[in-house]
Automatic annotation (TrEMBL):
Residues 1-24 form the signal peptide. Keywords: Signal. This is C4-dicarboxylate ABC transporter substrate-binding protein. Gene3D superfamilies: Periplasmic binding protein-like II (3.40.190.10). It comes from Halomonas stenophila. It comes from the Bacteria. InterPro entries: TRAP_TAXI. PANTHER family: SLL1037 PROTEIN.
Amino acid sequence: MTTTTRILTGTLAGAMLIAGSAQADRSDWPQSFTVGTASQGGTYFVYGSGWANLIADELGVSGGGEVTGGPNQNLALVHTGDLALGLTTMGPAAEALAGESPLAPGVKLDNVCALFPMYETPFSIATLANSGIESISDIPDGATIGFGPAASTSDTYFPAILEELGVNFERRNGGWNDLGGQLQDGLIDVIAFAAGIPIPAVSQLEVQTDVNIIEFTEEEQQQVIDAFPVSPFQIPASTYQTLEEDARAVSMWNFTIAGCDLPEDFVYEITKLSMENNDRMRDIHRSAQFSVPENIEYNTVLPFHPGAVRWYEENGYEIPADLKL
């Protein structure tokens, strides 16, 4: 056997061993997975479905996004194992972990682990330009307001926020696309969104009609920050055609989640793929520009999955001891 042949044979044998090892490492991986998103027409659906396709394509595991009621339902379904992965916001996550989820009162949903930060969810308000509503104080008594799917982040927090600001309203639930159609048809007066920007349903409305994006006054913003687990936020003017300058709002952080009992290697590869390919994540939705490891600090609630912890620590990011299993 020549030296070249020995080298080639050794290289091939090594490659086979690596391939065999990789195959063995996948022995406990799920054969398929589902990502819980939210209603069509919202950012969760676009982000979650695109992320699911990225995972499936790159890791060779069958998977996709699923329409759900949003963060609260995703927490419950990931906890029970009906969904492997999902998207949620920190407010509902804290309530779920404390046994205060509106979908499972008294049950601590503690089989839910964080993976990585997504983006901030601004709370924003839209109405038709011909409504005459240009501020929150302009919303008439008894106005019909769409708050998104029942038990979503928007439906959980926005009614209470508007009540805090003295708005009297009739509540309407539904998917964002459906509510956008109702607004355009004059069946509701206002939509109160809690979704990553740009919100597809608002962008679609702008193409078809004139809309007003309603911002919080400084006083309203501070009043809401004092009363709820939210932060100050500015919706950049570049987000929508309608905006001529940045719009004042409040926001809440979103994280991807996984069942804590999912295989560590599987979650490690998902985290690695998501955190090392931000350009591809931004191709899914531009709000993914904030889906970077530096923003893990905004999760102070859920433990990180051991697979995610491994990737972060390998890459120099510290996870607090109380956020490890």
